[in-house]
Write a structure and sequence with these properties.
Chain lengths: ~230, ~220
């Protein structure tokens, strides 16, 4: 059965999108080969596997590529039915989780990237927007778990948990580079923050997140690049 | 048990029509509520407080928003006439292309039809590159879903019908038979399916609406 489940992940260490897939594979205990891509010099394999977007992450399963992190997460959940199920059985709960996953992906995370890449008034405006989105997310989390959120462990992590860790897991590095708090445990995000802290205690998560200094370095680099090209 | 299915939609919206197409394909009865998007109803705002947009499906009082999320919900709840394969790889493929259409194609098509004159040629080129990906994806299949209409066909309703209408309204030329023979054939097949045909907004009404809202386009004669 050696060829049955050959899995490889093409990624970049600092990419939160890649982090999502990395976490998913680790939570399910799926053995895989990791291929670090140099994004300034993408491998011909990456371009072959993702000709449309030419981006990481790419999951390759028995030679077949799957791209787009949220699509990959659902593929992993449907293919490997052991370990935690990232989406529950009930169609309505699945719809709620997909809705909020898309919200975190597009409304929250993409704006966080903008915050990193801008300064001054433009940045201030986006910070306010993210704060509003986080308030909505807090309400969303409450609506998915009206009876309260079950205690997290490695057997019951879900899709949203993976998104929360990949988006906010390096919050200390984000705060250091930006000089501001994005996720506020007191005002906007008490539930989100307590969930994040619980997730960060999990063995798999501790092993998966890159060291603080490395993330700070990568974020500083991205920010400098973006600000430099903006002022040209 | 009395099932109550409400759909808040807008007659001209491809996103709203996607949901109707899926419901009709599965023979599901529902009550349709037309929303005036310039004057949204309190019900809509209650059922979709986050985005305040249509479509919203309300099933026995529980709202589901975002057209692609709704399509998957419909497929998982009413299992007759499935619109997604059981195979995880094919499902991933359909989801990938549906996102591609929503995140990349729509805005590119829009730019090519109603963008700035000086950017027109470049916009057409970009939109054509994206359409080429879909042309290649179709291969020799009758529908994106294979022998029957699937989730990706429904998501591609923008290409199958609305694109032609945008072209006529704005004068832009994108989906030519010469460049995209497979997509053109597919579009004809798609709009001939009765569950789809019954759910297309009237062409003239849509053209008038688009011209009124976005102008007559960069290449109008």
């Amino acid at each position: 059965m050696a060829e049955e489940n050959k899995v490889s992940l093409h990624g970049f260490f600092a990419s939160p999108y890649v982090r999502r897939v990395d976490l998913a594979l680790k939570f399910k205990g799926i053995p895989y080969e990791y291929v670090e891509e140099d994004l300034k010099n993408k491998s011909s394999l990456l371009l072959k596997y993702n000709p449309v977007h030419k981006k990481v992450p790419v999951l390759v399963h028995n030679g077949k590529p799957i791209v787009e992190s949220l699509v990959i997460l659902e593929y992993i959940d449907e293919t490997w039915k052991n370990g935690p199920r990232f989406l529950p059985e009930d169609p309505y709960k699945r719809a709620q989780i997909r809705f909020w996953a898309s919200f975190v992906h597009q409304q929250v995370f993409e704006n966080m990237v903008l915050i990193l890449k801008t300064d001054g008034e433009a940045q201030e405006k986006t910070v306010k927007e993210v704060s509003e989105k986080l308030s909505l997310l807090e309400e969303g989390i409450k609506s998915i778990f009206p009876e309260g959120i079950p205690i997290i462990n490695q057997e019951n992590v879900g899709l949203l948990d993976i998104l929360i860790v990949s988006t906010f897991g390096s919050y200390k590095a984000q705060e250091e580079v930006l000089g501001l708090k994005l996720i506020d445990p007191e005002k906007t995000s008490p539930l989100l923050f307590s969930r994040l802290k619980a997730l960060l205690e999990l063995h798999v998560v501790k092993g998966a997140l890159p060291p603080h200094e490395k993330v700070v370095g990568a974020l500083k680099f991205m920010r400098q690049n973006a600000l430099n090209s903006a002022s040209v | 048990m009395a099932e109550e299915i409400l759909l808040f939609g807008a007659w001209g919206s491809p996103f709203s029509r996607r949901v109707e197409m899926a419901l009709k394909l599965k023979g599901i009865e529902y009550k349709y509520i037309e929303e005036d998007i310039t004057n949204k109803s309190p019900s809509l705002l209650k059922y979709n407080p986050v985005h305040k947009k249509i479509p919203v499906l309300v099933h026995n009082g529980k709202p589901v928003a975002e057209s692609l999320v709704i399509l998957e919900y419909i497929d998982e709840t009413w299992k007759d006439s499935p619109i997604l394969s059981k195979d995880p790889y094919e499902r991933a493929n359909a989801r990938f292309w549906a996102k591609f259409i929503d995140e990349k194609c729509l805005s590119a098509i829009f730019k090519a039809c109603w963008g700035e004159e000086k950017e027109h040629e470049k916009a057409v080129e970009e939109a054509s590159e994206l359409l080429q990906f879909l042309e290649n994806e179709l291969k020799e299949k009758r529908y994106f879903g294979g022998e029957t209409v699937g989730l990706l066909d429904i998501a591609a309703n923008i290409i199958g019908y609305w694109l032609g209408v945008f072209e006529e309204a704005s004068g832009a030329e994108l989906l030519t038979r010469e460049k995209f023979p497979k997509l053109c054939n597919w579009a004809n097949e798609f709009v001939s399916v009765s569950a789809i045909k019954e759910n297309l907004p009237p062409r003239d009404k849509l053209i008038a609406y688009l011209r009124n809202r976005f102008g007559v386009g960069t290449t109008s004669k």
